[in-house]
Design a protein that fits this description.
The chain is of the alpha+beta class and 405 residues long. It is built from 20 helices and 11 strands. The strands form 3 sheets. Strands 3-4-5-2-1-8-9 form a 7-stranded mixed sheet. Strands 6-7 form a two-stranded antiparallel ribbon. The chain has a two-stranded parallel ribbon with strand order 10-11. It is elongated, with a radius of gyration of 27 Å.
């Protein structure tokens, strides 16, 4: 058996493990059938997901004994169910392994983290998102296990959910589907498209029987942020976001975003100006700060949104007056405490305020300094302290008054 990008020596050890049958599952099997190398999206290294029906740490121990010292560079165990993340180096070839005990999942509360218990390999495949990711390869016999028709869907180049409650159980499956659609050129199969439409038409739904509709559980917000990060940073994001909007899945974020037709323009400009794409996307929501909080965006991204909204408020209030604003006035506004270059860039991305002075400040005015340096002023007899600062500001203001808006 050969898997592109994976050392035959490693496959030999896994296929004859003394621990018991080891199955390769998930994206690595899908990509093998598509004649693609399956890499980790963050690090770009070959990435294998392995499932066993016994304790995963026991398999890791067996691997350490069979591979010898120095091959396993890193080993980290996660969670109560003993999933182990490994980084191997075989003859200079790095490989990532995730070793997991087969498990089953149940979603008593829609979109909340599932209840997990140990199970069989069949249970493990049944908990996955799409049929094309629900195949396994027995590394001892080389037999392909395909209980959900993944091969047929690969041939048809389509994405099909495993069951009728898939989207309701975990709406992030739609974001993953958009990633696969953009990366592989697949389409959402008709019954899955209908499932997405029917489920999303009732969004947001009650999370527990008898409760009124409300915002999603915090766990879902975190998972959405992680999936969006993968989509925006490591996938053909234009096609992926177009698929999400076509499926109606922007409603998972915000109803206003679902109707938004300017997101592509915003994100293209954000890319040019070096802004995080997720910030430019969230800025189109009806309440960007609320969405940022629900997604648990990093503090620095949340701060940029907050600064941009404050700047937008001041610009809408008419300061500085667009018809009379000078470079000096614009610098006073844009360099005030609580503003930043990122907030100004976001204002440009979102069409907030007059474009020309914002762009001139971002590209030129903020870099202009006084004609004379502090050292020169001190040599000329200016005292250190407030007077030196006042002189430097006055000289810079004089230079700014020569600039055209």
């Amino acid at each position: 058996m050969e898997i592109p990008g994976i050392s035959p020596a490693l496959l030999e050890v896994l296929g004859h493990s003394s621990f018991g049958p080891v199955a390769l599952v998930g994206g690595a099997v899908r990509d093998l059938l598509l004649h693609r190398v399956h890499n980790d999206p963050w690090r770009g290294l070959p990435d294998l997901d392995l499932v066993v029906e016994g304790p995963a740490p026991a398999l890791v121990q067996a691997l350490q004994e069979q591979l010898g010292p120095g091959v396993i560079q890193r080993s980290q165990e996660h969670g109560a169910y003993g999933t182990v993340e490994l980084e191997l180096n075989l003859a200079g070839e790095p490989v990532l392994l995730d070793v997991a005990t087969a498990r089953r999942e149940a979603y008593p509360v829609p979109a909340e983290n599932p209840l997990v218990s140990f199970g069989s390999l069949a249970d493990d495949l049944a908990r996955r998102d799409f049929s094309i990711n629900a195949m396994a390869l027995d590394l001892a016999s080389g037999a392909l296990l395909d209980p959900h028709g993944g091969q047929q869907d690969l041939e048809r180049r389509q994405l099909r959910f495993l069951h009728s409650g898939s989207v309701r159980d975990d709406p992030t499956r739609l974001v993953r589907g958009a990633r696969y659609a953009a990366r592989l050129g697949f389409v959402l199969e008709p019954s899955s498209t209908e499932q997405a439409r029917i489920t999303l038409d009732t969004w947001p739904w009650p999370w527990r029987p008898g409760d009124p509709p409300s915002q999603a559980p915090a766990a879902l917000g975190t998972r959405l942020r992680m999936e969006l990060a993968l989509l925006l940073e490591h996938e053909p994001w234009v096609g992926a976001l177009q698929a999400l909007q076509q499926w109606g899945a922007f409603r998972l974020l915000d109803a206003t975003l679902q109707a938004d037709r300017a997101w592509l323009w915003r994100l293209r400009w954000a890319e040019r100006l070096g802004l995080p794409l997720v910030v430019a996307l969230v800025a189109g929501a009806s309440d960007p700060l609320a969405l940022a909080e629900r997604l648990q965006l990093p503090h620095r991204q949340h701060r940029v949104l907050l600064q941009w909204l404050a700047l937008r408020g001041r610009l809408r209030a008419g300061f500085p007056p667009p018809a009379r604003g000078s470079a000096e006035q614009w610098c006073a506004l844009l360099e005030a405490p609580g503003c930043s270059a990122a907030a100004v860039a976001l204002a440009l991305v979102c069409g907030t305020g007059p474009r020309r002075p914002l762009l001139r400040w971002l590209l030129r005015w903020r870099f202009l300094k006084a004609q004379r340096s502090a050292t020169e002023l001190l040599a000329a007899g200016v005292c250190r302290g407030p007077e030196l600062g006042r002189q430097l500001r006055a000289l810079r203001a004089e230079r700014l008054r020569q600039e055209r808006v």
